[in-house]
Amino acid sequence: xxxxxxxxxxxxxxxxxxxxxxxxxxxxxxxxxxxxxxxxxxxxxxxxxxxxxxxxxxxxxxxxxxxxxxxxxxxxxxxxxxxxxxxxxxxxxxxxxxxxxxxxxxxxxxxxxxxxxxxxxxxxxxxxxxxxxxxxxxxxxxxxxxxxxxxxxxxxxxxxxxxxxxxxxxxxxxxxxxxxxxxxxxxxxxxxxxxxxxxxxxxxxxxxxxxxxxxxxxxxxxxxxxxxxxxxxxxxxxxxxxxxxxxxxxxxxxxxxxxxxxxxxxxxxxxxxxxxxxxxxxxxxxxxxxxxxxxxxxxxxxxxxxxxxxxxxxxxxxxxxxxxxxxxxxxxxxxxxxxxxxxxxxxxxxxxxxxxxxxxxxxxxxxxxxxxxxxxxxxxxxxxxxxxxxxxxxxxxxxxxxxxxxxxxxxxxxxxxxxxxxxxxxxxxxxxxxxxxxxxxxxxxxxxxxxxxxxxxxxxxxxxxxxxxxxxxxxxxxxxxxxxxxxxxxxxxxxxxxxxxxxxxxxxxxxxxxxxxxxxxxxxxxxxxxxxxxxxxxxxxxxxxxxxxxxxxxxxxxxxxxxxxxxxxxxxxxxxxxxxxxxxxxxxxxxxxxxxxxxxxxxxxxxxxxxxxxxxxxxxxxxxxxxxxxxxxxxxxxxxxxxxxxxxxxxxxxxxxxxxxxxxxxxxxxxxxxxxxxxxxxxxxxxxxxxxxxxxxxxxxxxxxxxxxxxxxxxxxxxxxxxxx
Length: 725
Prior knowledge:
It is a single chain. Strand 17 and strand 18 form a beta hairpin. The radius of gyration is 39 Å and the shape is elongated. The protein has three domains: 325 residues, CATH 3.40.50.200; 101 residues, Sandwich (Immunoglobulin-like), CATH 2.60.40; 141 residues, no CATH class. By secondary structure, it is an alpha+beta fold.
């Protein structure tokens, strides 16, 4: 009997271990509901079953546009993974048979959201492919954001602007957007996703030219987020117009030339308007279409009763499913921007709302028109200690499109509006630099903001500077200018270029000429040294004043010139020196260098030599690849040759000698009698000077330029040649 009891207990233990666990939040919910009440749940699966990603091409799972964006952050052979595969239909079918209804599936989280009773949930737990079951969080209404209609305002125009911003100028001027608009950078080429509570007045005049390429209502499951019940969808009109509205003289958003994907993820008519599976579906959908930037002016923190809300300790970047989804989008190349929240009054150690706590999420706080933090703007840090918010933009009295009058406008408060302004800056950066990754975009935004040197958890890195952020990845170019007098030889221009964005080497040039004429150029090419490039200006006649400047361009079209004001400004040098010919004979020649040269490489001086170049040092012959003045060298040629060299003339010469035999030459253009050579120490020469010419030696009483001489020295010292003596 005891054996049977042990067996039964063992079987029960084994059985209990196979049941899928349910979260504490779901347990609390079950305890507070009636047996027939339907609960929104997440059912997470252990795997995708027999579905294999090797059976899919990339573009069967995501769009070509999404694949191109992912290629910025992922290896080309890993653009998709298991999380891009659909949820296994067999799993969906089996779950469907046990629950009241299926809501949605999430391929990223390999999960289904469903309606199920407590009894149905218990039945689900026994399915072997289920990993866990959790609640679908439904969040309470966000804190009220003030809104008031505008009837008359003084205009705020500037004649230097290429556009008439009307009284919306302040909100874009504060973040330095206008210079980018003046340059033609207006968001073109970028896809922006805006998720909100609907967009009920798309007939508003500020949307007349907006390019909407996709839209969906994830609340009502239809493709019409702009067709919503009366009284809904006002917030979305406000936020969308903030980033992309365009009506000259009234409202111009920072990224009004971008293309837009709009999604309704919030239900105004529910006491718990935000359900996290709607947002997860929206981000998965938009990512697969190729969205570049998302702007979400919704923040999720407070659950509906009776289950426990998220707390400030949960704002750690990896707890809420919404934050996890935002992090996933970031790793796939999407720049995710979210309002930091309007929760400052709660007074907890941080007052962030999900997904603003995400590792890759740009959390936007709010300031007023004077740059002072708005009293409601949520503060950080995240629970794990990261600075939040990330950046700030205007969130007090922001001008937006009216949600009720097609040519009306309102002023609104909230981080809901600093968020689309921030997302607009991200879109401008990508419009100028489409190759940048989300990390690079975030870095540019933070490292050019007003408090980048002293960030804190109230202002983050400070108020955005869109123009500086766009310029952040311009090439850094350094050059030590050629100046003074240079030889009439080709001159090498050495340039150091640091560029995060690849250079367009066809547009990296040194322009040169004389008399302010820069019709000639040479391309900069890599030297092989890190970040070092070279261009060679050809030979100019003696006494020419050569002028040049450097122009460097990356593949995104960013151009940097040195000097910065080129071609009005330029570098210059004067061509000086003289030229002469060294005439050689077939066979061995003993040669010295009569001029100060720019390059002492033996290959440059004697390119046609048929032997190594030998000097005599320390009582032995030595092969030399770099030559010098004052020495003589044995060089062999196959025929008579004229070797042209250019350099500067010396007026005097000092030759250092060693004890014993020395091979020397004078670096002068005139001859010098041997008796005029000053010896240090005195009486240090203990032989004649021997000249090698025409295959034999001769005693020399006068030293001539270009030739080499043997002489024996008693002690190491100097031979000084000075015509004034």
